[in-house]
Structures are given as structure tokens and as C-alpha cells.
TrEMBL record:
This is Peroxin-7. SMART domains: WD40 (SM00320). GO terms for molecular function: peroxisome matrix targeting signal-2 binding. One of its GO terms (cellular component) is peroxisomal matrix. It is found in: Cytoplasm, Cytosol; Peroxisome matrix. It comes from the Eukaryota. WD repeats lie at residues 220-235, 245-280. The lineage of its organism: Eukaryota, Metazoa, Ecdysozoa, Arthropoda, Chelicerata. It comes from Dinothrombium tinctorium.
Length: 335
């Protein structure tokens, strides 16, 4: 069963499931494809057994489009969003408004970057001090204190737009970034912010997305404008990717590893599709790593996330103003 939510006149950029509530997801969206106008985060509650999807609240940023969001990992009603004017907005979704459906006043606003912020992510390792990463078109990555919202460090090294940044779920203080120069860079947040400890080309064009395997600290997937997904072992990058997943016909906007499997990867693309892969099948030349293809949207598909609480449940969003929540049914590899 697939649940559908329409984001009014706003084009979807990314979706994130709540780390606390199994039936809640949020979507960052922008008017006019993010070129101008208002940004909005839709906080959506869904009940798939009853096929009910309803708006909990909408968060409005009047000054520019919103391109990404991240839920607090320490407080269930706080989320951060990132906008095209370089600002971070911190929201309390429990605030009420006059019509009880929209919130227009963040609890805190931070001028974070000089250009668009394209990615924002809360740290995943609970034993660390909570912190947040932002990645921007100004070629910078910044680390923010998740409690005080103060800037802790600024990371350089990219020669182009930084489209994505992802904390390692296993190695403390470690994160990766994907950039318009086609490189993946891996940093230790406790070491020099000017020099990543590992940098290598992962795409013939622009690298748009990266995500770590949740069960192997050395495995990371990348996607970009050449339409390929590459899976890397960071110990052996000189040998090339361990698996190359081919099937998208246009740029891969987002890749995500399943939180419930060491080999399942999902991807969304400008070819309007969402695909599910088993990258380990790609290690065998006679096996097809592509497991499923969903034609969920009529426009570019931009956002993607797995639900930590519900096995094999995903959400995606696109420029057709739709959020779709669906579950992967049991499948057999396509041989």
C-alpha cells in the first residue's frame, strides 16, 4: 500500500522520518522549484494500515526555498531546516498558530552560509556531543552545536559546491561530503578542518549524494550526474568501487543505505524513478543487483529516506509536489 501527501504549491526537495515517532515524516519543499518564493516544511503523520495521511503542521520560511531538514536526535519536537538564502531555521513543532496548522516563526534563525545550503544532518552517534552539519554552495561545510546552535568548525577543501554531507553512523566525529568537482571527501571533525584525511573522485561529473552503510564502517555509496551509483570500501579506493549500480538514465539525486540491511541501497533520480538495489549482487557478474523500480513521480525525484522504526518502509518526494510513503514487499533477486 502506498500513502500519498500533496505539498500544495511547493516542490519537494527532501524527506526525513522522525527518529522518535514511527508514523511521522517531514518534507522540505520550495515554491517555483526553489528559484524564488517561500519555503515550507510539511510535518506529516501517516497510518498506513488505515491509509490515512494528514498534516500535523506546516513550517513556513517566507524569505527563500527550503532545501533540506534534519530532526533533532535529542528532542522529538525540534527540527532544523536549511534554506536557499544561507540560513538555518530551528523549529518547535509544538508551537501553535492562529489557525493551528502553520508555524511562521522559528525559535531560532542563524545566518550560516553566504550561499544556498543544500544539506543539513544531525550526528547519529548518541555518545557524542550532539552536532549538526551543513553543506553549501559556498564550498564550505560547517559543524554546529546541537544544543547551543553555535558554529563549532568550518571545513574547507572542496573546490566546488558541496551538495551533501553525511555523518558516519559508526566512527565518531567522521563525516563524508559529495561535491560538484566529482570528489568524495572524508573528514575527522577533531582534526584539521582544512584537509580531509581522504579525498577521491567518485563521479565523472558532479557528485550529488553520499551515504554510509550502517553495518560496515568502511562502506559508502555515492551518486551523481553520470547516473551511476558506486559503492566504495574506503580502505581500498585505489582499486576502484567494489560495485557499480547501473540503471538510472539521468542524474542520481540521492542514495540511502537501509538501516535494516548491510547491502540494500535505495536511490532516486531525475529520471522520475526510485530504485532498490542489493549492491552485493553486483559483485557477481551474472547477477542483477537491481531489485525493484518504482515510478512514483511525474517529475524529478529529489528526496529519499528509510524509516528506522519500520523495516523496508521508505518515503520519497519530487518536484511533482507529492510525498509517497511505501513499503518494499518481499522480493527475489532478478537473475
Amino acid at each position: 500500500m502506498m500513502s500519498v501527501f500533496e505539498t500544495e504549491d511547493y516542490h519537494g526537495y527532501n524527506v526525513k522520518f522522525s527518529p522518535f515517532a514511527p508514523c511521522r515524516v517531514a518534507c522540505a519543499a520550495s515554491q517555483n522549484y526553489g528559484l524564488k518564493g517561500i519555503g515550507s516544511v510539511y510535518v506529516i503523520d501517516f497510518f498506513t494500515d488505515e491509509n490515512v495521511v494528514q498534516l500535523y503542521t506546516a513550517l513556513r520560511w517566507p524569505d527563500d526555498g527550503l532545501f533540506d531538514l534534519t530532526w533533532s536526535e535529542v528532542c522529538d519536537h525540534i527540527l532544523w531546516s536549511a534554506s536557499g538564502d544561507g540560513f538555518i531555521q530551528i523549529w518547535n513543532i509544538l508551537q501553535t498558530s492562529q489557525d493551528f496548522s502553520t508555524i511562521s516563526n522559528p525559535i531560532q534563525v542563524i545566518k550560516a552560509h553566504s550561499k544556498e545550503i543544500y544539506a543539513i544532518e544531525w550526528s547519529l552517534i548518541r555518545c557524542e556531543n550532539p552536532s549538526v552539519l551543513t553543506a553549501s554552495w559556498d564550498h564550505l561545510i560547517k559543524q554546529w552545536d546541537g544544543v547551543t546552535a553555535q558554529c563549532m568548525r568550518t571545513f574547507t577543501g572542496s573546490e566546488s559546491i558541496v551538495y551533501d554531507a553525511a555523518w558516519s553512523p559508526q566512527i565518531p566525529s567522521t563525516f563524508a561530503s559529495a561535491s560538484g568537482d566529482g570528489f568524495l571527501r572524508i573528514y575527522d571533525a577533531k582534526e584539521s578542518p582544512e584537509i580531509p584525511f581522504l579525498a577521491f573522485r567518485v563521479n565523472e561529473g558532479e557528485a550529488l549524494s553520499c551515504d554510509w552503510c550502517k553495518y560496515n564502517e568502511f562502506i559508502i555509496a555515492t551518486g551523481g550526474t553520470d547516473g551511476l551509483i558506486r559503492v566504495w570500501d574506503t580502505r581500498y579506493v585505489a582499486n576502484g568501487p567494489v560495485s557499480v549500480l547501473q540503471g538510472h538514465h539521468r542524474a542520481v539525486k540521492k542514495v540511502k543505505f537501509s538501516p535494516h540491511s548491510d547491502s540494500i541501497v535505495a536511490s532516486v533520480s531525475y529520471d522520475f524513478t526510485t530504485k532498490i538495489w542489493d549492491f552485493k549482487l553486483g559483485l557477481n557478474p551474472v547477477s542483477n543487483p537491481l531489485l525493484m523500480t518504482f515510478q512514483n513521480h511525474r517529475e524529478f525525484v529529489y528526496g529519499l529516506d528509510f524509516n528506522l522504526h519500520v523495516k523496508d518502509q521508505l518515503a520519497d518526494c519530487g518536484w511533482d509536489k507529492l510525498v509517497k510513503i511505501f513499503t518494499i514487499t518481499p522480493f527475489a533477486p532478478l537473475l
